[in-house]
Amino acid sequence: MPVEFKDYYVTLGVARDASGDDIKKAFRKLARQHHPDVAADKKGGEEKFKAINEAYEVLSDPEKRKKYDQLAVSPGTDGGEFNPRADRQHGGDEPGVHFGGTGFSDFFERFFGGANHSGVPGNGRSVPHEQAAAGAHARHHGSDIEGDLLVTLEEAMRGAVRPISMQTINHQTSQVETHSFQVRIPPGTADGRLIRVPGKGEPGTGGAPAGDLFLRVRHAAHPDFTTRDADVFYELAIAPWEAVLGAEVTVPTLDGSIKLRVPAGAVIGQKLRVRGRGLPQGKTGERGDYFVVLEVQLPTSVSAEERLLWEKLRDASTLQPRQPPSA
After folding, report:
1. Burial class (CB in 10 A: 0-12, 13-18, 19+), 18
2. Is the CA virtual torsion 241, 242, 243, 246 positive or negative?
3. Which of 9, 12, 110, 312 is surrounded by the fewest CB atoms within 10 Å?
4. Hey, is 187 helix, strand or coil?
């Protein structure tokens, strides 16, 4: 079944030979502009944010980007539709499952996602249509289906309810069936977690129960934050004098801004830890920590006056950066 080809380079507005840094900068700029929390058009901003995330998910990963670039030169991928059956050497498949509301396009699910008939051990196997037609009285548990679910950090923080639609092919009738339902995203949902939706997999035969749907959570890339389990990380750019003298700064978190003290003598890469300001975790809801990672920003150009001051500092400073440490 044909799917619409997605030009991820156009989505991010970067050249096909863009560096990883260029891709990251383009994503951050667009994500800040279209993030649902700040976009003037909430609905349009949400859809644009999802498209930006999908493009970044692929182009920021070297292996996925390589696979995508191979797809992009395949016949019939000039921005229109193409048939994945002709591109199985690139990982194309014909799973017969189409999701709506997960945050990912059919194109992504087909080539980079987890939409498939998983056949999880213990849940039976897929029954070919011919077998089902020949013996409708045979009982076979329906196979499970797996897909991906894009979850923003704000949703992971507070929890959410997401309307999902799913089109599948009923192998007994060869008819396309559309299923619509609500999926609850609990607060603290971790990246990679599987959310189980009972009975939404492939239908069983001979009166056997249907399989289940498993949605694998993928945290949406955020323009400011990254996560590791329940911990949240934020990169803070500081001036050289702030690193030397210390400073009081205001930094954003997922639930409001806080004031933070940068200690005198701070170094590049130093992590400042704020306990209990990360994501909720576990059944207790206890929260992870929030880490501010310091990045000292140096000027790329200086005025004549600034140059004189830097030279004066150089002449007065006792710092010996290449002096071997004393024993």
Report:
1. middle
2. positive
3. 312
4. coil
Q: Tokens at residue 125, please?
A: 């196997």
Which sign does the torsion angle of CA 154, 48, 92, 140 carry?
Answer: positive
Q: Which of 231, 213, 8 is CA-nearest to residue 102?
A: 213
Alpha-carbon gap, residue 227 to 249, rounded angstroms: 22
C-alpha 134: how far from chain center: 44
Pairing between strand 145-151 and 213-219? parallel
**What pLDDT is attached to residue 252?**
94
Taking CA atoms, 235 is separated from 49, 126, 244, in Å, by 21, 47, 18
Element at 51 (helix H, strand E): helix 42-59
What gap in Å lies between CA 297 and CA 294, rounded to an integer? 9
pLDDT tens digits, one per residue of 157-206? 999 999 998 887 766 677 777 889 999 999 988 888 999 999 888 877 77
**3-state SS class at 290:** strand
Interval 233-278: pLDDT, tens: 999 999 999 999 999 999 999 989 999 999 999 999 999 999 999 9
Tokens describing residue 115: 């939409």
How long a stretch of residues is the chain?
Answer: 327
Sign of CA dihedral 79, 85, 91, 96: positive
pLDDT at position 150 over 70: yes
d(CA 164, CA 178): 10
The pLDDT tens digits for 31-47 are 988 887 776 777 778 88
- Quickly count: other Cβ atoms within 10 Å of residue 261's Cβ: 10
Measured CA to CA, the distance from residue 129 to residue 141 in angstroms comes to: 14
